[in-house]
Amino acid sequence: MTAVVDVQDLAIGWSADAVLIEHASFAVEAGEIFGILGRSASGKSTMMRALVGLDPPLAGTIRIDGETPIHNHQRPQFGVMFQQGALFGSMTVGDNIALALETWTDLPRDAIRAIVNAKLRLVGLEATADHSPATLSGGMRKRVAIARALALDPSLLFLDEPSSGLDPITAVEIDRLIALLARELGLAVVLVTHDLGSVYAIVDRCILIDREARCVLATGKPRELAASTDLRVRRFFTRTQEAT
Amino acid sequence: MRADGRLELVGELRTHEARRLWRTLNEAAKSSGPQLDLDLARTTAIDSVVVVLLVELRGILGARGTKCELVHVPAAIGPVVHLYGGDTPLAAKPAPMIEEGALARLGARVEALAHQARDPVSFAGELVTTMVETVRRPRIGNWRAVPSLIQHTGAEAIPIVIVLLFLVGFTIAMQSTPSLQLVGANIYVVDLVSISVTRELAPLMGAIIITGRSGAGFAAEIGTMRISEEIDALRTMGIAPMPYLVLPRVLALAIVAPMLVLIGDVAAVIGGLVVAVVSLGLTPQAYLAELQATLIPSDVWTGLVKSGVFGIAIALIGCQQGLAARGAAAGVGRRTTATVVICLFAIVVLDTLMTIFFRRVDV
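The joint structure predicted for all components is written out below.
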């Protein structure tokens, strides 16, 4: 297997005096769904921002397909879905997905339109291309955000809490969609979440980060971690105050 | 209060009684000895607000060195007392923070102001770099947005520019009427209106209107995009905010501002014409003949150059403040307010500098 994401000795936080997590090392293989887990405010989203190159890490190296992630007028190496979708409110749903295609390809408008419709069909929202994002529900916005992240056919997706704030049925639908994309398109998916339902359902391997310990507590398959001898890890996976 | 250092609280202790109770407890606490326990044995009901006040009083007394506990808590009110920490031992107070002196606060404020002044300047530098990059790779710019921005910031502002500048011309002429009539120099109303408006007032009024309509709008729009992670989403698509969001806005206002001012010049001259005809008895032909003789091209183009510079400055400040927004809606509001204040300040400073420059080069 090839490491699509390779992280070595990563430290994240706001400054050298406010380190959240340090000495984090892990690799994400092609085709796997990799979870970054932790309690609220443990630094999961901060870690994702560092991984996708939005914030510089305090220390360590991040390699995506062997390169440091940058966004300096370059075609992106991956797709990103933000926690609230971050759809462009001034555009239609279709234009949100078309933007990356218009910027990074020479395709004519009708071809882009066809691709946009295909991406929306993939997430089950083919009838919404001309809608404003403001008219969509939370779950639909997240689906559109996934479609937008898929616009340029990346081999790697970063998803920040895709099922948070959704009802259980919609959350399961989103999980199924992610699993389908990973399985059918062979995508590597880095999934930031604290939703154990999603973790057990779709995550192949994961890390658990802890702000108090300022480190990665454990790495492995979710069910293995649930049986960990480390009380802190077991508490998270068994959702109990005391691991018994 | 009983002699053994116990204060007994009897009956129902409800929120609507809390203010009176707090005053009474504080009075009692003033005369307390080394120990003052709050006895709840005969308390039949208690609201959480009152529990919080009792816990607070315990803390105040503890800081003064008076030992204070909530004692004999009945089972019926035990849960609410427990929930708000009434039965947990008093935690040691953290060491008081050393308060900054006035000089340190002044220094910090000056530093913050220096930062604020430096940010737009470094932002302008970044824009120049972006412009060079855009010349090399035109597709990174969001040129499709420019026509709609011109429509929104320019065409939609024309009515208000016409009305305000008409009134400015009208008012200047009105104010000068008594003095001009006194010396029999009615015709000079044309000089007064046309030169003051084209060189100074139209660019200034135009800039103020653009600040309110577009500068604040840019800050609010981009600030909202910033806090809703839309800017981050753009960056992860390999689309830099500078050529995509800032450059089109700067370009739009650089084009629109002189156009609005030119329209404003005409409106103000017409405002002056109305007063000249109605109050000063001039004919329209005489007014226009004097205008032709008085107004030289540099009066107009210096005003247009000024307005172009104002337009660029307003767009830069609005976009820079928007991109600097943090937090939630309040953060956007603060940046929008700051945009208006900084723009007005910048407009006056730039106007002064350009006026000095034009006088020096004699235009």
